């Protein structure tokens, strides 16, 4: 298996007002702005996504204003709404069980920021950040953890990228039930699966632009939803195989670091980039790679860098 190195970093950004988040975001802006849709670059499109954000995430509007003002780029506000971004489709696997949220995140290494962030925009949140302030997975100080996988369908509609919804749920919700209820009023652009865990409950919910939030049969997900999986999709993603494997493995980290859950590089260059194990009641997350790990928590968050080897399954 061809190996590759990737550097992950951990940063603290506080409430986003002291320049630490801005310094991070400015360094990435040149590669980020190309992900904005053509509509989002127009005054009319920027106005539309700003209005959508204000209507559906009013609690985060002051944070949006604070971050966009510090980034000080003409298209920053439209970008940060995450309602005018080009769609992406990571192939991931996740399960919630026994107070634990365990997930593998699969994508091309150059398409993942690889930044573990500790923030306090509205409340303390730790997670794997992407698209400047969205989250691929994370937890809050109430003991709620959330992670995402792509839903495996090509539907697309007006709405938010899933990354900002994970951020929003963690900033504003305390429990799984509260988060699922909040999802019912949030428009989403692309089919996605969310797995949520709190001290007493674990659940996976299918969401998309063409469906109401639908609770999955159990609290685990790969890259399909309620529709049959075609032979071509299974051959490309092994989504059913991975779902069977994670159901059998439960919250066993060792299984996540082995095939079929740990995925080698495919034809598009996608591969397993990290495994995350959240214990939200303890306020603790550990990120794993074959042969090494990195723990962070609300009580002991340590900024720094970690260069890991990808493509070396246990």
Kindly describe this structure.
There is one protein chain. The chain is built from 9 helices and 15 strands. 27% of the residues lie in helices and 31% in strands. The radius of gyration is 18 Å and the shape is globular. The chain has helices at 20-32, 43-56, 61-71, 76-80, 162-172, 176-183, 231-237, 239-249, 253-256, and strands spanning 4-14, 93-97, 100-107, 115-119, 125-130, 134-140, 145-150, 192-197, 202-208, 211-215, 220-221, 271-279, 284-289, 292-297, 304-310. The mean pLDDT is 94. The chain has one domain: Penicillin V Acylase, Chain A, CATH 3.60.60.10. A 9-stranded mixed β-sheet has the order 10-9-8-7-6-5-4-1-15, covered by helices on one side. Strands 11-2-3-12-13-14 form a 6-stranded antiparallel β-sheet. It has 314 residues and is an alpha+beta fold.
In a nutshell, what does this entry contain?
With 314 residues, the protein is an alpha+beta fold.
Major β-sheet profile: 9 strands, mixed
Helix and strand run: EHHHHEEEEEEHHEEEEHHHEEEE
First-last Cα distance: 12 Å
Specify the structural class. Answer: alpha+beta
Report the mean per-residue pLDDT as an integer: 94
List the helices and strands and how they pair.
Elements: E1 4-14, H1 20-32, H2 43-56, H3 61-71, H4 76-80, E2 93-97, E3 100-107, E4 115-119, E5 125-130, E6 134-140, E7 145-150, H5 162-172, H6 176-183, E8 192-197, E9 202-208, E10 211-215, E11 220-221, H7 231-237, H8 239-249, H9 253-256, E12 271-279, E13 284-289, E14 292-297, E15 304-310
Parallel strand pairs: 1-4
Antiparallel strand pairs: 1-15, 2-3, 2-11, 3-12, 4-5, 5-6, 6-7, 7-8, 8-9, 9-10, 12-13, 13-14
């Amino acid at each position: 298996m061809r190996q590759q190195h990737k550097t992950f970093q951990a940063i603290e950004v506080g409430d986003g007002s002291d320049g630490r988040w801005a310094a991070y975001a400015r360094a990435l802006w040149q590669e980020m702005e190309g992900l904005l849709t053509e509509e989002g670059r127009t005054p009319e499109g920027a106005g539309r996504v700003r209005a959508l954000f204000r209507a559906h995430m009013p609690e985060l509007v002051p944070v949006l204003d604070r971050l966009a003002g510090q980034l000080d780029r003409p298209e920053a506000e439209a970008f940060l709404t995450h309602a005018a971004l080009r769609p992406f489709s990571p192939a991931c696997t996740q399960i919630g069980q026994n107070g634990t949220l365990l997930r593998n995140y699969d994508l091309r290494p150059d398409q993942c920021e690889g930044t573990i962030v500790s923030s306090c925009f509205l409340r303390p949140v730790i997670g794997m950040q992407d698209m400047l302030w969205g989250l691929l997975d994370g937890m809050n100080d109430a003991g709620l953890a959330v992670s995402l996988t792509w839903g495996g369908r090509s539907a697309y509609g007006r709405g938010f990228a899933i990354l900002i919804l994970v951020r929003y749920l963690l900033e504003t919700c305390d429990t799984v039930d509260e988060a699922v209820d909040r999802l019912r009023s949030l428009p989403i652009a692309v089919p996605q699966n969310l797995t949520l865990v709190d001290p007493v409950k674990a659940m996976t919910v299918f969401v998309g632009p063409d469906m109401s939030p639908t609770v999955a049969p159990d609290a685990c997900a790969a890259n399909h939803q309620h529709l049959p999986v075609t032979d071509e999709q299974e051959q490309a993603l092994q989504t059913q195989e991975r779902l069977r494997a994670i159901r059998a493995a439960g919250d066993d980290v060792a299984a996540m670091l082995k095939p079929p859950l740990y995925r080698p590089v495919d034809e598009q260059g996608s591969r397993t980039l990290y495994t995350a194990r959240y214990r939200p009641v303890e306020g603790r997350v550990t990120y794993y790679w074959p042969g090494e790990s990195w723990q962070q928590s609300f009580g002991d968050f340590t900024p720094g860098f970690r260069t890991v080897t990808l493509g070396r399954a246990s």
